[in-house]
Write a structure and sequence with these properties.
By secondary structure, the chain is of the alpha+beta class. Helices cover about 25% and strands about 40% of the residues. The protein is built from five helices and twelve strands. The strands form three sheets. The protein has a six-stranded antiparallel barrel. It has a four-stranded antiparallel β-sheet with strand order 3-2-1-12. The longest helix is centred in the middle third of the chain and has 20 residues. It is globular and about 65 Å long. The C terminus is likely disordered.
């Protein structure tokens, strides 16, 4: 899982990943992260490593189940697969101690869900699921640290966004929000960034290498200003639920 995350983060060309092979006390690091989950201790540890951000998380559930059924007409046996996956993770900014994001990524469904995730062989799903997790978490990180923002508003209501390339497709829809603000958790005094209210919905009309062009679908273009943030309409971890099979299980 961690390797899949590292690959996707590196491919974004927005982050440099510290090579764990060059960190001397790896076993001490594992013990530290296991026994110290407070933001203050994580920040101290991140500064010791020279990191700007720390991604910490827990795999709460990672299971693949299967069931077999006989097809009498064809005299064959078909196998149905299902996965149940849940990962909690946080992104902490080391310099400020701010929790930039905290979320749970869940996948639950059958073979058709695995196929939709780009996992062609449901009988060997673990590598594919790990890569899927890495892609989704790195995408969420990228959106949080380098949000999609408005850089210009031109004639005929054309809205220019600061990112482009293969992350976007014509027709993609986003909610448009005013820039967020930092608030303090009264219990921990940890700074947390919150979004402001939605002012409208936009749709991508043109994708270039370094920027996109969008238009308003709902709302008033006059409410949009440079610096407004675009968020995907569907949560990154939203997946349909499918009934679990009745028997058999395989865990990792």
């Amino acid at each position: 899982f961690s390797q899949g995350l590292i690959e996707k983060i590196t491919q974004s060309r927005k982050f440099r990943v510290l090579d764990r092979a060059n960190i001397d006390s790896l076993e001490k690091e594992k013990s530290f992260l296991k026994n110290n989950s407070s933001v203050t201790e994580l920040v101290r540890f991140g500064k010791a490593l020279g990191a700007d951000y720390l991604v910490v998380g827990t795999v709460r559930q990672f299971a693949v189940q299967w069931s077999e059924r006989k097809v009498n007409v064809l005299n064959t046996v078909e196998t149905d697969y299902s996965c149940n996956l849940a990962v909690d993770y946080r992104l902490v900014e080391v310099a400020t101690g701010e929790i930039r994001m905290s979320d749970t990524l869940q996948v639950q469904g059958g073979a058709e869900i695995l196929s939709s995730l780009g996992i062609p062989d449901p009988a060997r799903p673990f590598l594919g699921l790990a890569r899927y997790l890495g892609a989704k978490i790195s995408e969420a990180m990228l959106e949080n640290v380098y949000p999609i923002t408005v850089i210009a508003i031109k004639e005929h209501g054309m809205i220019y966004l600061n990112q482009g390339g293969n992350r976007f497709n014509v027709g993609d829809q986003f909610s448009m929000r005013k820039p967020g603000e930092l608030v303090l958790d009264p219990s921990t005094q940890t700074p947390i960034r919150i979004d402001s209210k939605v002012i409208g919905k936009i749709r991508i009309t043109d994708v270039r290498a370094k920027y996109c062009i969008a238009e308003m679908e709902t709302g008033d273009t006059n409410d949009v200003a440079i610096g407004c943030v675009a968020r995907p309409l569907l949560p990154l971890n939203q997946m349909p639920d499918v009934q679990k099979p009745r028997s058999g299980s395989m865990f990792k």
